[in-house]
UniProtKB/TrEMBL annotation:
Compartments it resides in: Membrane
The keyword Ribonucleoprotein belongs to this UniProt entry's keyword annotation: no
A Pfam family per the record: EamA
Protein name in the entry: Transporter
Lineage summary: Bacteria, Pseudomonadati, Pseudomonadota, Betaproteobacteria, Neisseriales
Length: 307
């Protein structure tokens, strides 16, 4: 990976690891839908501001509908699921579960996009599922229905991310490509349009009480929308454009350590053996899934080893 791409990868991991911290602060106070809607709205406004400052022409080259639809899958639904999970799960847990994104990509690729399932990838999926089970069953929290629902919400989010990687290639890359900044902007607009009616209904049915919401919540929302969404998505789509979707997905290796670190440092969340055991198995599964395979020479026996 090019050094500039590596720097973007680390910065993106730190930002997205921090997003779980900010959601953990905001979602219990605002609820899931307003948190997710505020994030994508601020993300879209931030990207528009960046485009104006950098004098980027708002040209979608006929791919604006595709970018909107991509935003529903890559931002709207996942952000809502993670905001829901943030009400019941520690930030570090959600960050570790986020690392199942490549596993979901493998399953979706095999079932819907004709991808080949190798022994290494199949083993990686099984090891990853074992890691999720350990994280859920042996953590510092009782495995209640609420906790299980939070874990399932995270897995729905990662399934959306896995699907979005293939759709980005099909809808954007294979149709001539598009400036990564426009993909990011269009996706946030699409996610905003998806969540707008639900956020509007909740505002009417359950009006917020501003006096009961602390300044830390508003700061968390600004950081979540502007830093962890608008700026981070520009980094992410640039990585996809420069390095391809699979290499861009390696950011999931780095998000869990940052998520656990921010949760521990800021919120005092416990770091337990479940983090090490479950997170370690998920990391091993990622290595199995993402490692490149050595091409087999024609006419020669192979040892079965891959690099």
């Amino acid at each position: 990976m090019h050094p500039a791409s590596l720097a973007r990868l680390i910065a993106l991991a730190a930002l997205w690891g921090g997003s779980f911290l900010f959601m953990r602060i905001a979602a219990p106070a605002l609820d899931a839908v307003p948190t997710a809607f505020g994030r994508v709205l601020l993300g879209a406004l931030g990207l528009l501001g960046l485009a104006a400052i950098m004098r980027i022409p708002l040209r979608f080259q006929g791919k604006f509908p595709a970018a909107l639809a991509l935003g529903v899958i890559n931002s709207g639904i996942p952000f809502l699921m993670y905001a829901f999970a943030a009400k019941v799960l520690p930030a570090g847990y959600s960050a570790i579960l986020n690392a199942t994104t490549p596993l979901m990509g493998i399953l979706i690729g095999v079932t819907a996009f004709g991808e080949r399932l190798t022994a290494g990838k199949g083993g990686g999926v099984l090891v990853g599922l074992a890691g999720v089970a350990i994280l859920t069953r042996t953590g510092p929290f009782e495995a209640t229905n609420a906790l299980i629902s939070g874990v399932l919400a995270c897995l729905v989010a990662t399934a959306c991310y896995g699907l979005a990687g293939f759709l980005t290639k099909r809808w954007i890359s294979q149709r001539g490509g598009l400036d990564s900044r426009m993909v990011a902007l269009g996706s946030q607009i699409g996610a905003t349009l998806l969540l707008l009616p639900f956020a509007g209904w909740q505002m009417v049915a359950h009006p917020p009480e501003p006096g009961h919401i602390g300044g830390d919540v508003w700061i968390a929302m600004l950081a979540l929308g502007l830093a962890c969404t608008s700026f981070a998505y520009m980094l992410y789509f640039r990585l996809i454009a420069d390095e391809g979707p699979m290499k861009a997905l390696t950011v999931t290796f780095l998000i869990p350590p940052f998520g656990v670190l921010w949760g521990w440092r800021v919120l005092g969340e416990a770091v337990t053996a479940a983090h090490a055991a479950g997170g370690g198995l998920i990391a091993l599964s990622l290595w199995l899934v993402l490692r490149p395979e050595t091409a087999r020479p024609a006419g020669k026996a192979t040892t079965g080893e891959t690099s």
